[in-house]
User: Fold these one by one.
Assistant:
Number 1:
Amino acid sequence: MAVDLQELTKQALEEIARADSLDQLERVRLRYLARHGGLISGAGARLRELPADQRAAYGRDFNAASGAVHEAAERRREELSSAELERQAGEEWVDMSHPGSPLSRGHAHPVAQLVREIEDIFSYLGYQSVSGPELEDDLHNFQLLNMPPEHPARDAHDTFYLAAPAAGWLYRTHTSPVQMRAMLTSKPPLRIIVPGKVARRDNPDPTHNPVFHQVEGLCVDSGVTVGDLKGTLEYALRALFGRDRRVRLRASFFPYTEPSLEADVACGVCQGSGCRSCLNKGWVEILGSGMVHPQVLRNGGIDPDRFSGFAFGMGPDRIAVLRYGMADVRDLYENDLRLLERF
Ligand SMILES: [Zn+2]
């Protein structure tokens, strides 16, 4: 029996030394040492068949044989592994000077770019950018802005009302409620702009989308006049559209301003001759404004005998359409990268 083990060990060590790959080494290891059916492991099972006085010696020989084969296999595995690493290092070298593959860079959505631009323009004039809640109550969205229940001006604000359990709340129809919140929490002088999303139940068409953006502006101080309003709007519109674009101001009506002015810009697609984009008007309305109504100042806790102010609201979506000569405002919301990547 002992001779058997010696002979098996000798064979195993020779085969291990000859193994020239990790796969081959593993096959050799299993042939001799597999728990079931390994040649040396199987020799161990004969222990039980031996007379009691021979078992201790056979056990020692068996342990020595399997230990020697196991150790030889481990040593050979290390040799083969480092040889394999060296081979890889030699063959699979990395060219550190090879140019990397380019990463495609994203950029802000054209409307977000315009909002930032508007913020920059007004920041230069001393305005601070603030935000307010998108879900509002009737008081801030309408009543404090001189639109009590049943006021006809509410018809133009076709409103999304929230259902129970949020009944009584609405999706703001303009950013003007943030004016009220600012007046109620700060003292003049006030110079703020309020970029944000608003919603009205408009049918989508080339110039309307139910959800759109507004940038509201408010200036309250002592001695603010219509001249300040006109100067501010002219400065901002020239900064946005360039000195060449024709701009007109015309009288309008809003319940929360007196007097009220609207600013139109010549259509960027047809330059004023009329097209589908401007619904054949040649002009696109981009801005409503006016001197803050004395009652609205009072509603905001500001004394209209000591202070006056102006407010304006503009649509960055519409400005993007004009600026880039887009035919349809809805293209801004389709998330078609082929289009958005152009801006
Ligand atoms: Zn046009």
Number 2:
Amino acid sequence: MKKTTLLSTLFLFALLPFQQLKAQDVTRKNGYTLTFESNYAAFDPALKKRLVETFFIVYPKLAKEYNPETSKQVTFFVDTAYKGVAATSNGRVVFSPAYMSKHPQDVDVVTHEVMHIVQDYGESVGPGWLTEGIADYARYQFGVDNAGAKWTLPDVKPTQSYKNSYRITARFFAWMQAKVKPGIIKAVDKSLRDHTYTDDIWKTLTGKNLDELWAEYLKNPAIA
Ligand SMILES: [Zn+2]
């Protein structure tokens, strides 16, 4: 009897962390499904609500602008074991609860990350800085509260390069869109998805290669 009781107790304790891991709920809206999972019980419910709301605002817009065929099902996972800011693969975004709890205004981490789902480049034929630059450009275009997070495109410096990625590249793209060729980032994004991208695309679309465009950008970097 005693042995059975001990086993039952052990069994019960073994189940507890499992139940915590399985904390998830599903929201469906306008044909999109977001599954929200968390293994951090103390995650602020108001922040969770904002992350979910941000998804349903930005994801359909990103899909419409860049890739209507993008997955209709996305998972968010708040994972205490994850030590970065956020990362995305296979329709699943992992968030660091430590980062998000410390920066609750930075809800457009969602916008950058779900853009990676929309990009759907597979094994990309382009460089990594380009993928990240486009994701931050999309955040610049469609972010719901970049100002609240004090997230801006920083002024360019002569020591920088378009290969610096993220916001530095995003600002260069905003300049191209405004001053060189409207629709260019949309076209480049598409070429990455259908694997037709090569370095020549910039010259084909603008008459100049990336280095020439960057030199021109440094001379007159206004984006508005
Ligand atoms: Zn990214």
Number 3:
Amino acid sequence: MNIANPSQESVEALAAEEFPVAGRHVYLNHAAVSPWPERARRAMRAFADGVTEDGSLHFPDWQAKDAELRQRLQRLVNAESTDHIALVPNTSAGLSLVASGVKWQPGDNVVITDSEFPSNRMVWEALADRGVKVREAACTPAGSADCEGSVLGLVDQRTRVVSVSSVQWGTGLALDIGRIGRELAGTPTAFCVDAIQSLGAWPLDVRAIGADFVAADGHKWMLGPEGLGVFYCAPEWLEELQLRQWGWHMAEPLGDFEARDWRPAATARRFEPGTPNTPANHALEASLAVLQEAGIANVAERIAVRVEHLIQGLNRLPEVAFLSPTDPARRAGIVTARFGDRTEAVYEALRRNNVQVLPRAGGIRFAPHFYNSLHGLDHALNVAADALRR
Ligand SMILES: Cc1ncc(COP(=O)(O)O)c(C=O)c1O
């Protein structure tokens, strides 16, 4: 395959060879927990064999894999360098680094949207005892509100952080995060993005959108294992964000366990207090290799085609009401729809017929990835149509 610019045929071949899940299910739960590509399974198995048979003898290889993973993540978000990438257990941990590390004053506020996943609300609400208020911008119903305008309209001189999801978990609304970041650039307000519902599926350029922080877990659109995510920290915040967790792995010099005059690493490793999740590093590196080989722009385009296919097909069904945006500019990889009082019956029929979806935001959430076949989506649409005829 020409990795710099893979043809549609080679992306199709990669999709066919890497996803055994497609032979068992029409899997549309990538907004929840994704199946791994074959390559991630092989990487994890090889790691397990090595550690089972030889303990930590392959430690230098583990370090090399750690470095490769950081390079992939740096490219994925276009960070300045791997010095700005930390490996964290999940999105919530990344967001908590920001919430616990900003130097808050009583009377400060944080702006979020009214449809955030609890992780990107609770971390800020937990600052109430320090006198920090949370302001929620009107972003529902998805597609009707000027979400970005509403976010920016709530920002004032006491707003220390704006923290939004790039894509809302339930309604699937894709925010124009570039617009928010550009407006905040040069102001004292930091811009934090929960990118778990888009990273891996859509290109992200942290510098172009002016993000100060980005957090995302690997188990959704990055097709990786649970328990490993990425945290991006912009250069001007590396020293500024207060550290609240401590351990040997974040120290300089690294690995000198006798040193008494340690200091936190100058890089984002300062946010990684202890032993890395080495098994997960192997799997996530392999998952990202598949996505980057396909090309993130191709992945995004293919997801958009699948989302369009679902919207067109669902639109032909009786009683359908979309809770996710139908405007292409506002869509991501999530289609959420209701079917009046038949919603539960449709959901049950889909599950009975091997279509993996979840009830979310009052509807059924369909979240296809680049490898899903259009034929599989047609199966899902036919099952839904049948359930509505009964
Ligand atoms: C937008 C959003 N943020 C955060 C999370 C939770 O992330 P984590 O488990 O990685 O902390 C989810 C999970 O569904 C989510 O959709």
Number 4:
Amino acid sequence: MFKHDKLPLMEKPYSASCERNAKAICDVLKKIIGDNYTSLLELGSGTGQHAVYMAPQFPQITWICSDVKSNHEGINLWLKEVNLSNIKGPIEFEIGKDVFPSGVFDMVYTANTFHIMDWEKDKLFMQLCGNNLKKDALVIIYGPFNYNGTYTSQSNADFDIWLKERNSLSAIRSYEDVSKNMISSGFTLLQDFDMPANNRTLVFKKR
Ligand SMILES: C[S@@+](CC[C@H](N)C(=O)[O-])C[C@H]1O[C@@H](n2cnc3c(N)ncnc32)[C@H](O)[C@@H]1O
């Protein structure tokens, strides 16, 4: 027998914050997703927990997970367990490396990615949405944001220090910078939802 015959199986990854915020985000999605929306591309699915929690609550929507390749194995473990027919993927979509996935998406949803990716990638993501989405498509961005150059809480200020220690290019982004870039990419701000734990959900619609 070769040594690698007994490689340990990967454990299903688990995100406690995903578990905590999934319901609040889903409640916002219920307010904004109309009956005529049928496909959603998720950028940076992470573990896949948001897809697994939310997709069953929108049976009319095909939820397409995406992330960098290294996260696919973990996402697949979650998807395999629930075996939901309206979740597809994960597809490989890394901002800065991959082109925008082919297909027609009426929504792009992303949670907790803007403060992880560097600002150039955030801007590229917004441009890609502008170049590839059709009129009335929604872009939904969840996470912490600063307003008027100020943290909205001490915990966000502490989180920002922690982020920058891990990666000097990660940071909590400015709501005004994000809005400005989304507007110049062809979107209008539809709503800015206050979320638990000093987070926001920004909803933009393609003009
Ligand atoms: C903090 S996790 C958030 C995961 C999940 N959305 C959540 O809310 O729990 C950040 C995610 O962004 C993804 N990510 C980082 N850089 C990326 C890039 N350049 N393109 C696409 N996804 C990226 C990571 O792989 C990871 O899944």
